[in-house]
Design a protein that fits this description.
single chain, mainly alpha, Hypothetical protein af1432, 9 helices
Length: 162
């Protein structure tokens, strides 16, 4: 499946929830931008983009089941959901396993084990910070403790005027 096909499928899956659709589009755009400027190889770029599009796939279920979208719930519920969602995407076993891993860890800031994981965390944070109006102290802390890519650092400094 192409990235555009996955985006379309995710929009349909979102059942008109504009907030969820806007969020995953933002995260995907930031992830794609960071990845291209960091010069990821094609397969890693594809895995990252699919993970960025589907990273919050469990949010509707979490709202219904738990009454919130706590990151721990999203990670736990997201793994089987993303596997079912992508079952017809024609992905390799490696691609599917890595995407499930990324969706299942996108709120876990320790033990980041790859550039795709690093960029997903950075892109999701940038989207969340802009959507939720994070304060300068929070953004500065994230920038200094978590961000590793030069592109992520540049985007955060430029966007949030640090």
């Amino acid at each position: 499946m192409t990235i555009s096909q996955i985006i379309n499928k995710m929009i349909v899956f979102s059942e008109g929830n504009i907030h969820d659709i806007d969020h995953f589009i933002r995260v995907w755009t930031y992830a794609k931008t960071i990845a291209e400027l960091e010069q990821l190889d094609g397969e890693t770029q594809y895995i990252l983009e699919v993970a960025a599009i589907t990273h919050d796939i469990a949010c509707p279920l979490c709202r219904e089941k738990y009454g919130n979208t706590n990151g721990t719930y999203q990670e736990e519920e997201g793994i089987p959901m993303v596997e079912a969602f992508l079952n017809d995407a024609g992905m390799s076993v490696y691609q599917m396993e890595r995407i499930k891993y990324l969706v299942g860890h996108h709120h876990t800031l320790s033990g980041i084990d790859g550039i795709d994981y690093q960029i997903l965390v950075e892109a999701d944070y940038i989207a969340n910070a802009s959507e939720n109006g994070y304060d300068r102290k929070n953004i500065d802390s994230f920038l200094n403790r978590i961000v590793k890519t030069s592109t992520g650092k540049q985007l955060i400094k430029s966007m949030f005027r640090l």
